[in-house]
Amino acid sequence: FFFFLLTFWSLFLLFLHFFTFITAFSETVYGVQIKHFNISQKFDLSSKSNLILDCDYSYNENDLNLVIRWFYKNRTEPIYQWLPEIKSRDVAEDFKSSFNMNYVTDVADPYTMFRAVNIFKPKLNMSGKYSCRISSLVNDVLREGYVYIYGKCIFVLFLGPLRLVFCIHCISWKVKKNNLFKCIYYEYDKNLIQNW
Hints:
The chain has one helix and 13 strands, in the order H-E-E-E-E-E-E-E-E-E-E-E-E-E. The chain has 196 residues and is mostly beta strands. It is elongated. The protein starts with a helix and ends with a strand.
């Protein structure tokens, strides 16, 4: 019985060491991981001025050549790219006028401080899919989400005695002659229906 107990205890310790090794190895191999992906799914231009897209991540000493990229819709080139090791930051030309380069998420960590995108007074046509991609020599991770940017109602419809209001927003505008705008794509959100 004593021999059996000793054998069982030895196998248990061996398994424990093996499990600890595998856990440590997997943490080292997997490298950078996205912890939180925070974007405003609905952004009201009439009450907010800064659209913040944040992609918080964890990394370890093996994450060499860390690169943070933000993509818009299905573009192959990023709208924002940051390489912390060489302190290089690039913004796409059509986003430069709205991009806040002074926005910092974490002053204490030089490898996460400029990870977020801060767009000042975004335009309606900036609605769509945004993707955060973080790469290193060890790992490559991606998260994406949709941002719906809207302004004041362009059309309000009262329905029945309940006085429900459907607020319809213009998502895409087209410039016509004499600098007049024509709304070419309308959208409404059931979550924006409210009691008037």
